[in-house]
Amino acid sequence: MKRDIYDEDHEAFRESVRTWIERSVLPNTDKYIADKALPREFWLEAGAQGFLGLSIPEEYGGAGADDFRFNAVLEEELAKVGAAYPTCVGIHTDITAPYIVELGTEEQKQRWLPGVASGEILLAIGMTEPSGGSDLAALRTTAVRDGDEWVINGSKTFITNGYSADLVIVAARTDPERGAKGITLFGVEATKEGFSRGRKLDKVGMEESDTAELFFENVRVTDAEIVGELNMGFIHMMQKLAQERLSCAVANVAHAKQILIETLQYTKDRKAFGQSIGNFQHNKFLLAQLFTQIEVAEAYIDKCVLAHAKGELSAVEASKAKYWSSQTQSEVLDHCVQLHGGYGFMNEYRVARAWRDARVTKIWAGSNEIMKEIIGRDLGL
Fold it and tell me: Is 217 a catalytic residue?
């Protein structure tokens, strides 16, 4: 079915993203994998193209495009290259930047947002902890008042962009007696004394994404670094998670769809027993099933994107999108590997890397089990 959520402006933007990707990203993908990171040049060029400041107002150097469909287009095109690209860029543009845009003070916006839009200030968000996983309310990182300052101690793990980030939005416990109602968000600049990073984590997939542990040892900040309201950090995070999960869903479907299209071509080109392997009834029926799964998932995600652009997407709908898209992606890519036979298990083939990259999407941004819990509660259970 023809997709109908994008207009001429969105498609023109898509062409500009594709042009940049073909010119500057695709020729360097092997290098990014080897370096286990996207270099600063990648971010600076993306910023120069206007891709990093889509939701940032023009007065702070952004595009001022208050329409999430542009973000979705960017994620879709990046996902066609590899799953790590919309992940790293999405953390910067869709997940972390909105905290500053929507909750930051005027001073914070002027200090940070121009660099965020240009790629000079790379963002990460410090939620997940070694002992906590999806349980954000149980975080142990603390921020203790000491005169006019706050002293942060603790650690974060699995932080995307963590090894390179210049600014990290950190969730810390400021009132231990209040549980989830005692968490505050702080903007911690990487130059702060006491802030350090562990090594780049050795992941199963998504090599291009620099993922690290972050450590805070008596890091001192002031009220000027509080993002949002004191002790309202958990609420702020819950309000922003819907967009994070939708961003994941957009990338999940676009990534799987691109690999499926390439797999279809492979089954037409690959010969066995005197014919293309795609002509075998089992493979023909399987491909029919996989394309239907992807298109049905895409239709739901499109509806969610449109709802979010109108400010109408609920947390439950976003949870459904994240859960279903990641599950569908994993199933589709597993079949794509099988259709490639032994070649599907070779890292030199995109399908193998895509299969590995996709596995984590059922874990992060709230595990699929947490998504089902949210959906189940909405059913009154």
Answer: no
